[in-house]
Each structure stands twice: as C-alpha cells, then as structure tokens.
Amino acid sequence: MKTIIAIILSIIVSQNLIAQDSAHNGVKVGDQIPNLLFAQVMNYPLPSANISSFKGKPIILNFWATWCGVCLKTMPRLDSLQRKYNDRIQIISLTLENEGVVRNFLKKTDDQILKNTILPIVPSSKEINRIFNFKAVPHEIWIDASGTVYAITKGEDVNDKNLQSFLAGGINKMMLKRDIKYDAEKLFLGGGIISDSIPVEKSSVFLPYMKGLGSRRGVRKKGDYQRAFMTNTNIGMLYQTAFSEGDPYLIPRNRAIIEMKNPERLSTYIPWDKSKSHQSEELTITTTFSYELVMRKDIPQSKFYRQMQNDLNGFLGAKFNIIGSRQLRKVKCLAVVKIGDVSSLETQGAKPQFLKDGNGLKIVNIPIDRFLSELAILHLQSYSTPLINDTGITENVDLEIKGKLSNLKSLKTGLNKYGLDIIEKEKEIEMVVISDLKKL
Prior knowledge:
Glutaredoxin; 3 domains; five-stranded mixed beta sheet; four-stranded antiparallel beta sheet; 24% helix; disordered N terminus
C-alpha cells in the first residue's frame, strides 16, 4: 500500500462552504416562535409558564451557564436593562443546569446583581435548547411583540442602543450569531484525499479565521495517529500550545514574552495592559487561525511538538516575519511555597474528584499540579506574574478552597490552612518568546 505524505500548510477555504448557520436546523430569524413551555421558572410568580404568558411584549431569551465567564459578565447588564425598560420588554434566562445548581450558585456568588437578579430563570432547558439548535453560550434570541424571531445574537449585542432600536421597531442591523458545528473527532480535511484505506504519514493544515467557530485546542491519540488541533486560535496561543510541549504551566498568557518592534500587531496578546487588550475585528480575522497536525502514533512526543513548532515558525514567519521559541528567563512569579506543616494535604485515597463552581473548589486524590495549573490557566492569567509550583509537592492531595479562585487574598487564606502560601519572587523559568525575525 502506498504511503501518502500530506503536507498542506495553508488552505484558503470559503467560509460559506464550511460554516453552518445554527438557524438552518432550528428556529431562524423571521420564524414564528412556538408556544414554549417553561416547566420550571425561578424568580417568577408561578412555578411554570408558557412563552404566551408574556405575549404582547418583546422578549429576549438569554441562554447561559454558571460556568460561563462571558455569560456571568452579560447577566448583570441584562438585569439592568430589564430594570430600566421594566414592562416594555421581558428578558428570560435559560440554562441546561438544574434548579439546585443555579440556586446554589446564586446563593454563593459575590456578585450582588446576580444574587438579587429579577430576571426569570428557566433551569433544565434541554428541550428548549434543541429547538434553537445552537452550540455556544451566551446565545440571545430576540422575539418581537408578535412572536416573530427578530434577531439571533451574541450576549454583547444585548445593549441599550440595540434595545432602543428593537423597541422602536427599527430595521435590524445586528450581526446574526453563527455557531459552526465542529466535530473534534474528525480531521479538518475530513474525507478529502485522506481516507481510511490510505495511511497518513504527516498532515498539517492551516485554515483562516471562521466567524462562528469556537476556539478549542487539544492533543490526543486515536487509532494509529496522534493529533493536535486548534480552532480559531490567536497567534500567541498557537505558539504557546506548541512550545508548551504538554506542560500546562506554559499555557497561560502571562508565560509569553512579546519582543516585537510593533507589538500592537498582536495587541490581544498583552492582556494585563487593559489599554492594549482591545482589538478590531479586522485584527482578529488576520491574526487568528485553525491548525491541525496529524502524525503516526509511534512518533515520539518530543518530535511531534517539534513539528508543530516548525510548522508555526514556517507559516507565521513567512506571513508576519515573526518567530517563536522557548527560553529560560528570569521573571517575577507568583510562587506557591510551603510555609509550615503540609500533612493535612495528604490524600485519604478516596475516589478522585475535581469539583469546582464560581465560589470555590474541592479536589480529592488529585495531583496538586492539576489544581495549580488550572489556577494558572483559568483564574490567574490576567496577572502579569505567572503562577509556579515551588512547593516540591508532586503527589496527589485532598484540598478545598472557598471563595473566588481569581482572588489572590481568598486563595492565600485557603492555602494557608494547608501550610502553603503564594508569594512574589524572581526566578528563572521557561517562557514562550515571540519575536521579530532578524533580517539576513
């Protein structure tokens, strides 16, 4: 059987050929809304309701989740708009999570607007979600007073300006939210020249930014292959994923150093400087890509990551005249250190658990690095100083932290109970460096 070496470094694909508007298989703009049943409703005089209960006024259905950071930033704004426009509109929030999860979250959250929201909340909304067939939250369905779908948008589009236009019956100029369906189990080229009967030696693909496609990353092995994929990922995170070589501590944005003459080209990658964190849609489009690498499973992991690095430096070097590398640099760090007896961390050997919500975390029989690397990636990467494990502990532990995980004060208080602390110190650590290519 012949072996085909597929090396494809840049493919320009029309978004119209790939993107699938979520509305194509569900309720779309211009459709009459069905009389939805809300089997459970929180923050409402009755335990259940139909959407017809709100007939005669415009409605916005806000689909959200307690674990979704963007949703939690959107909800207070929606609450304020509901209070401002009062009986002129009804905003209803729906979530797949059950009533117990929602009530527990609202009880524990420090956000007083969320805690005291007046928005009706519909939990366990699985059947309703299916009707609208979307993939990502927040997801907003705008319904006019006649029951017709006016717009389908992102959460950021529910603002005062758009709401005034909506209530005035203005022409809808909002962008339609598109959710591209992506199966992480399938190759980017899914079914093209590559088939089950033709083994792949190597395939690497770059695709342009695709509006509506979520940002996902993964490295996995399946069958005869190992595969890395990154969808709608900015240049900085492409480089950090490749040069992390599987080390999760190298993934947070604060583990990147930008050494470019004109760093504003990658302004999204200076997150701790809020004046430079905003970028135009045009910059997003030109500095965001999807990338996939497929190689045989027997290729050593070190060579697999080296190939990713070579692909990125080849493609992005030619396009932007930049290069990525991994270097030891002396930087200020947030170091987790021992300050006393740590015996209370010793696991009791129960079934491993990793439980987390917006108000804290509990781990049972889990490696401490799993906990600390998640802190670094999800909760502390907005700090300019990266988090490192300087405890010397590598074993599984039992630990519970209460409070916001992004709040250093509550984190330090929680860790102190286990003989640990977070201190600032200078240390030489591995960093991902993105710099201009030197002219020959």
